[in-house]
Amino acid sequence: MRVYDAADSIYSGLVALPWCPSYLAAMWIFCEELQSLYAAWIEDDEVPLMASTMDLVREVVIAGESPQAAARAWELAAAWEPVIEARENEAPGGPLNVLATFEALAQEIADPAGRYDSANWAANAAELRWRDWDDPGSIYLDPDEQADDSSPMAQTLALFGRLVSEVAALQEPEWDPVPIRARIFGQQ
Q1: Are 54 and 181 in contact (CB under 8 A)?
Q2: Under a CB-based contact definition with an 8 Å cutoff, are residues 38 and 94 in contact?
Q3: Total domain count, the chain
Q4: What's the domain range around 166?
Q5: Could you read off the pLDDT of 89-135 as tens digits, one per residue?
């Protein structure tokens, strides 16, 4: 698997989805997966913010946008800012991309001008999870890098790519991401 192509395909697939409900449902599922992939790096004070962000995204997927949801989204986006600032000098890129995914989702709901921003952060987080974060020096991303199909990186990127495809194919009258995720993972 060519890593750049897989990550770019995830991003491109996400931004091709209608923002609500498809994209937000996909991002809710992505965030569930990112929380599992990065559980060892998630701080205790980040867990309630993640849960609140997920609750808000799910609410908007199910009920649609509202002034109340936008107001809560502004509050969440403001709450994410100091959390990310506190970690940006010591945390590796992968965990920071996860936090930025959640912050960007709140910002997207608060301000429609920033829609689809979290897609880039999520695709980066999926790719960076399996990098050697202790390797000193600059990070060089080889656009021709290959990952063996059995490697954790390739499997993660393939899973995220499959999630995008599965959500894109849905023709749901009911968009609650919880049962959608259960159906997708039940198909493995």
Answers
A1: no
A2: yes
A3: 1
A4: 3-129+144-186
A5: 888 889 999 999 999 999 999 998 889 999 999 999 999 998 876 65
- Listed in sequence order, the residues at least 6 apart from 53 whose beta carbon sits closer than 8 Å to its beta carbon are 31, 76, 80, 102, 105, 106
Which amino acid would we find at residue 140?
Answer: Y
Q: Is residue 134 part of a domain?
A: no
pTM over 0.90: yes
Place of tokens 């899973």: 159
Q: Each residue of 143-186: pLDDT tens digit?
A: 888 999 999 999 999 999 999 999 999 987 889 999 999 999 98
In a domain, 138, yes or no: no
The sign of the dihedral angle between the CA atoms of 79, 85, 90, 95 is positive
Q: At CB < 8 A and 24+ separation, what contacts does 81-88 make?
A: 83/45, 83/46, 83/49, 87/43
